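[retry 2/3] 16S rRNA (uracil(1498)-N(3))-methyltransferase: previous attempt timed out, resubmitting with same input.
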Amino acid sequence: MNLILIKPSEVLVNIVDDQRSRYVSLSKNDHRTIHIRKHLHKKSGDAVSVGILGERKGQASVQLNGDGSATLILLDTAFVQPPTVPEITVILAMPFPARLKALWPVMSSFHAVTRIIIVKGQLSDKEFCETSALQPKVYEPLIEKGMSQGVRTRPVQVDICVDECHVSKELLQRLGLLNDNASQPDDVARLFLDCGDETMIPPPAREVVLKHCTRNSTPKSIIAFGPERGWTDEEASTFVNESKFEAVSLGSSILRVDTAVIAGIGVVSAALDECQSRINDSESNKKRKKLS
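[retry 2/3] 16S rRNA (uracil(1498)-N(3))-methyltransferase: success.
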């Protein structure tokens, strides 16, 4: 846990002699209190990194109480607005439940991942779609764990679409994943992960992401990952032919779902960061020219 995550509803306000301070009370059994005491070995007066979910990151002063609880006094002057970072939407066909449960915190640890959509692939096991790993009470704490690890406060939107009969253009349209103006590119890199065949391997994911990089907007990508047995030809046609996704690869190796998801997000995230760096450099150059 590299960041103590706090929900806005947990922040309390104390006013003494017209001095306003914000603080958070954590019980002794709260996993954050245990982490502060046993893993960070903090003492009263020490500072810890905290982040308010959906808001800013900053520092808080720790106060350890005699009953085992902890109080975090937010140091308002230390709070900063997170920088603009790229956005990734992950489409994942329902994998083996244990793999999905392990993937929730990993996916959400990446700064760029802002949305995770679980769909039912044609080769997904129907019984998998009944797993508790699809319930908010299970995945929400796992997502928060990943956000703490990744030192991020931007929330992750989750859409569970396993009740749909199959992946269709209509479903993707309803989820807002397609370009409404087909005649005008929208600069979103829509990637369909495909290992290819013996005769042809699709282009590298990084190459396709950089092709969509422009200086006009925050870099964005949508990545579609198949289940253990992969996508069917019909699903490939839905994504690539009907919905204008581009088939890409992570190399010639055939990867397990969990490995492919981690590798894919990592490659795309790095490429989007490269795009964002180009945008920032361009804006800096423009400001220098105005000042000169």
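[retry 2/3] 16S rRNA (uracil(1498)-N(3))-methyltransferase: The chain has two domains: 4-80, 87-280.
[retry 2/3] clearing retry counter.
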